[in-house]
User: Fold this.
Amino acid sequence: MKTPFRSLLVVSMSLIVLLGLSGCGSSGTESWTSSTTKFAYIQEEASAGASGTHADLLPTRPFSHAVRTHKAGKRATTSTGVDIQTGSFDLYVYDTSTNTNTQLVTGYAFISAQLSNDGTELLVCAEDTSGYLQLYLADAKFQTINQLTSGESTHFTPSISPDGTFVIYSDGDYLYSIPIKDGAAAGAATEITAASAFFGIYPVVAPDNNTIVFTGEVGDTGVFIYSLNLTTQALTKLSLGSGSSYGDWFPAISPDGKKVAFTRVSDVSDTLSWNIASIDITGETTADPATALTSNSVSLESQYVAGKIVFMSENTTDRYLNIWEMNTDGSNQVRLTNESEPEFFDEVLFGE
Assistant:
């Protein structure tokens, strides 16, 4: 896989994947609900030989240039000419209203996946047959797939705007926007960080469709969560990190636009600890620090779905990385999937 990343941001370079061929009300929940009760995720096939134990998968040092090697596959071809590499990952959609999952496609080099806010489109990142990371937009059943990017460069950690009019992504250094319409690109990619001196990945779009929140590095001060106003280019640091922080990663914005959930990576006795926390969209302060939502040291990649937070975590009994759900205050943590193969929203550079 060819991925020119900036050194510090390379740490958690997860390659987001979602591509297809062919085809409650307990205490602690907030009042909002998202437009869909579903979310997309990927699962590594057993044939890839991966273990669900986090010690074998999560990087031992986040700021490494490690990039997981996918199994090489045959060249993939489709009737629409979409260029996608075969591999060892399968794509699923999970419905929290029925607690059921549906496998959409198997055997491709998926990196990450995301459903649109209304649940009608899938935004995917995957390797093309030359090994470069590309973005793809498909309908929810993968009957129509359009390739958004191409060429010998990196396009990853994408996110679709809540109103479905544009996609943002990172090239490993800067952030870009692509207008979309009717399931396809409606114009060329435009750099959206030209007026700001920073490097960013994992961008997500707020409900106002004019603010993005992302993991960034500004002036070599560390890796934190930032927000950027697309109109004014006003840049705001939202998170403060921790005393032994290796950065704040994977931001997710609540559907009401008031909260940001993210993954805080810390060094605990020379071992990385991954836990989910939340802050107000106005930012973390020493007087109002982030609220820790998990404490098991292996929880990451959160997103808001139907008034709750779904996330990736490890079960302390069998040590498998599966998808979990919790209330927005961290209570009532329940495992949704129970497979021995690792499951992800975004394939976070597992391994060195």
Observations:
- The chain has one domain: 8-347.
- DSSP finds one helix and 28 strands in the chain.
